[in-house]
Amino acid sequence: MRRRLRALAAALFALPLAFAAAPSAHAADPTTMTSGFYVDPDSSAKRWVAANPGDGRAAAINASIANTPMARWFGSWSGTIGTATGAYVGAADQRDKLPVLVAYNIYNRDYCGGHSAGGAASPSAYASWIAQFAGGIAGRPAVVILEPDSLGDYGCMTQAQIDEREAMLTGALAEFNRQAPNTWVYMDAGNPRWTDAATMARRLHEAGLRQARGFSLNVSNYFTTAENTAYGNAVNSELSARYGYTKPFVVDTSRNGNGSDGQWCNPSGRRIGTPTRTGGGAEMLLWIKTPGESDGNCGVGAGSTAGQFLPEVAYKMVYGY
């Protein structure tokens, strides 16, 4: 608590400078308000280890995956969303840890890909859901990854649908700025081989990036940290040239230890990457996707559903085969 009060006091004294130079409207830095990242006690990896203590793979999965800080994803499965986010950040706050949350419920989610299709029933339903999401966090420190794939998933959409999606994201950012002043929100910007940097910079800007802390890369994908850093820098070069600002970015390193083989959906031979921490060329390296959770009914996850924990995949990711 003393750490948080010191951080808030420093932020208040620096307020004029923060608004002139900081990359988001938030004065508070949630990383200085907490003592490290939160380990989700109810992750799919944790639950599997607890349910299978005699399995020969359990020790490796527990040591290398289940006890690493990673994000919790929230969507239609989360029940009353404000209650769910409030309980999660509250539990982290009690331990003086920084939680990472993923908002994954946008209307027409994964509209073109389809493996994770779903989301809110309408744009207005999403607006209500994300407002409650932010309200549950309230003033406690948190990091939020906003709607993975939403700005890369444009291939089959009409301009009207694109405008609708960008308006939903802009509205979401407004809610976090209004209700969750100690939360850093990162808009998802896909990965280095999905959309060129100039196009992604335009999409981010049109969806309200100025209101966000920054953008996220490589969520649920496999590209190396170096590739993502180069891409993030390229996006920032475009933002600077076109719109006069840049933003910090974070990279999902949960499954990029062996890089990508060009496949995105449950490829074999992948490996866990650098555990969650600050730095590394990006503002933060985060585990956003849980290693071992399926991308869908494809690859080495044939017969599974998106998000299902596959212990054989998790175990192989520990060793990279």
Protein model, in words:
This protein is α/β, with parallel strands linked by helices and about 325 residues long. Helices cover about 40% and strands about 10% of the residues. It has ten helices and eight strands. The chain has helices at about 1-15, 15-20, 45-50, 60-65, 80-95, 125-135, 160-180, 195-205, 225-245, 310-320; strands at about 70-75, 100-105, 140-145, 185-190, 215, 250, 275-280, 285. It has an eight-stranded mixed β-sheet, covered by helices on one side. A hairpin with a 5-residue loop joins β7 and β8. α3 packs antiparallel against α4, α5 packs parallel to α6 and α8 (about 195-205) crosses α9. The termini are far apart. Mean pLDDT is about 90; it is low at about 1-25.
User: Number of helix segments?
Assistant: 10
**Coarse shape:** globular
N- to C-terminal distance: 44 Å
Low-confidence runs of at least 5 consecutive residues: 1-23
List the strand order in the largest sheet. 1-2-3-4-5-6-8-7
Mean residue pLDDT? 91
Secondary-structure element series? HHHHEHEHEHEHEHEEEH
Strand percent estimate: 5-15%
Q: Which structural category do the helix and sheet elements fall into?
A: alpha/beta
Radius of gyration: 19 Å
How many runs of DSSP E, i.e. beta strands? 8
Largest sheet: 8 strands, mixed
Helix content: 25-40%
EC number: 3.2.1.-
Protein name: Glucanase
Active site: 149 (proton donor), 295 (proton acceptor)
Signal peptide: 1-27
